[in-house]
Amino acid sequence: MRSPLMTEQNAVTQTTDLGSESNSSTPVQKVDLLGMDRQAMEAFFKSIGEKPFRAGQVMKWIHQFGVSDFDEMTNLSKALRENLKSVATVRTPKIVAEQLSEDGTIKWLLEVDNKNSIETVFIPEKNRGTLCISSQVGCALDCSFCSTGKQGFNRNLENWEIIAQMWVANKALGCLPKEERRITNVVFMGMGEPLLNVKHTFPAARILMDDFAYGLSKRRVTISTAGVVPAIDMIKAEVDVSLAISLHAPNNELRNILVPINEKYPLELLMPSLHRFVEGGHSKKHVTVEYVMIDHINDRIEHAHQLVELLGDLPCKVNLIPFNPFPNTDYKRSSNNAIHRFRDVLENGGLNVTVRKTRGDDIDAACGQLAGKVKDRTKRTLHHVEMNLKQKTN
Ligand code: SAH
């Protein structure tokens, strides 16, 4: 069941209380509507004496028409619009840069506060358009092959900052309702570890899937995780999204080096959690297994055999990702030969495998290259990660 913490209800109540206690000279803290899922929005309208159906109306204006000005919400009465202006707001972030790759990939740098910015990437393909969104400013996990981790960690993004990436991208791509929908898929594969920020990523995912907002199906919203086991176990009850696991190594020894959170949640805990995720789902339910191909590190034939064994009968699709370089890394991308040999072993072992095409690397928009602007507040030790885990998953 969803905990009350997962909604904006507390914020609403607090704001309403603030409002009733304040006199005319006290500024009222306004409630932000951009990041509210339907349940939170309905609670908000109830708290201001309105019918819950207003939630759907306002969500449509914000998410489907890209409207942030209450005056433009013409099916609301004038009185309600005035009331909303006094108690609520639709906060949106500033786009500080937009870069277009030769292959059509677009990267936006969004300022989320005066010290930090995050990156969001749109990847157009023939029959779909994928938006890759960030969930944190920086990342605390420090995976050794990932540029985001090298920037350090600053803070979790809030609901509105996560969903704002979709809001901004839809607007920038000019795909408001009358236009053809260009963003067909959303993946939480930008900066950060979404499952260390479930309080904000789950409501944002619910908004992505809500018919009054973006209406994406569960197959088209994917949370990617380095393996936060207790949070993997929360997904099914909270939001019915797809799951990708950043595996990258077939044994604990290697995975501890590449994905250090493996020390906390080793494969013997991680693998059963993936099976639990798929269990009881529809017949096509599976996990996407991501495996970055790094030259002479994790790309040997014996690693491929170990991977076949490890994955066993887990319903999954394996995605091999050629390593994308970034400044000051010693790692190199596996050769095409090595990648194809690796793929062949997996396929002979009965696995469904694709090799990811690198996109947007000329603008540093490829997997693992997102850096944003992060004012690091941590020493990025495992101790910090553990503290963070305790806070977020308790
Ligand atoms: N923290 C989450 C989401 C962010 S990473 C996770 O770990 O899944 C998104 C994907 O990009 C992951 O599969 C990650 O392992 C991969 N990635 C990171 N750095 C990379 C690099 N340098 N080259 C290729 N893929 C990379």
From TrEMBL:
Active-site positions on this chain: 119 (proton acceptor), 367 (s-methylcysteine intermediate)
GO terms, molecular function: methyltransferase activity
Catalytic activity: adenosine(37) in tRNA + 2 reduced [2Fe-2S]-[ferredoxin] + 2 S-adenosyl-L-methionine = 2-methyladenosine(37) in tRNA + 5'-deoxyadenosine + L-methionine + 2 oxidized [2Fe-2S]-[ferredoxin] + S-adenosyl-L-homocysteine; adenosine(2503) in 23S rRNA + 2 reduced [2Fe-2S]-[ferredoxin] + 2 S-adenosyl-L-methionine = 2-methyladenosine(2503) in 23S rRNA + 5'-deoxyadenosine + L-methionine + 2 oxidized [2Fe-2S]-[ferredoxin] + S-adenosyl-L-homocysteine
Cofactor details (free text): Binds 1 [4Fe-4S] cluster. The cluster is coordinated with 3 cysteines and an exchangeable S-adenosyl-L-methionine.
Residues where [4Fe-4S] cluster binds: 139, 143, 146
Entry EC number(s): 2.1.1.192
Alphabetized SUPFAM superfamilies for the sequence: Radical SAM enzymes
GO biological process: methylation
Protein keywords: 4Fe-4S, Cytoplasm, Disulfide bond, Iron, Iron-sulfur, Metal-binding, Methyltransferase, rRNA processing, S-adenosyl-L-methionine, Transferase, tRNA processing
Enzyme class: transferase
Residues that span the membrane, as ranges: none
Cofactor: [4Fe-4S] cluster
Pfam hit, one: Radical_SAM
Disordered: region residues: 1-28
Domain Radical SAM core as annotated: residue spans: 125-362
Additional record remark: Reaction proceeds by a ping-pong mechanism involving intermediate methylation of a conserved cysteine residue.
Family, similarity comment: Belongs to the radical SAM superfamily. RlmN family.
Annotated function: Specifically methylates position 2 of adenine 2503 in 23S rRNA and position 2 of adenine 37 in tRNAs. m2A2503 modification seems to play a crucial role in the proofreading step occurring at the peptidyl transferase center and thus would serve to optimize ribosomal fidelity.
PANTHER family: 23S RRNA METHYLTRANSFERASE, RADICAL SAM CORE DOMAIN-CONTAINING PROTEIN
Name of this chain's protein: Dual-specificity RNA methyltransferase RlmN
Organism: Thiomicrorhabdus marina
